[in-house]
Design a protein that fits this description.
3-stranded antiparallel beta sheet; elongated; alpha+beta; 118 residues; 5 strands; 42% helix
């Protein structure tokens, strides 16, 4: 599992500071798993920023790689067409290239925790 989280989404306060701290801790815990990579896309990024949330699904058992794109109205569209999968794979690669390296995620989350508890 590879995820890229946009910094403003992490800064948007939902609940109180205890809840936010727990959320940051859970993301850090998940990011420490051997099969999980979490990167933060800085708000000050210079690079690609996706307009919509999307997921590239690499499935087993002979299932084709697919892409799911979510829009602002709650609708989702799914495709396994190679051209679409390739297009969103390139977008994901651009996002990961613009994001902080995965090894920086725990420290970034700790910094957010310090900021919300001030």
């Amino acid at each position: 599992m590879r995820a890229v989280l946009y910094e403003p989404a992490l800064r948007y306060v939902v609940g109180d500071t205890d809840l936010m701290r727990e959320q940051y801790e859970e993301i850090a815990r998940l990011a420490s798993l051997p099969n999980v990579s979490v990167q933060v896309l800085p708000q000050t990024l210079r690079g690609y920023l996706s307009v919509h949330d999307f997921t590239v699904l690499h499935l087993d058992d002979g299932m084709p790689t697919s892409v799911q794109v979510d829009n602002a109205w709650g609708a989702a569209s799914v495709s396994d067409k190679p051209r679409e999968v390739g297009r969103f794979t390139r977008k994901f690669n651009a996002l990961t290239a613009s994001a902080l390296p995965p090894e920086d995620t725990p420290e970034f989350l700790q910094q957010l925790t310090r900021e919300i508890t001030k």
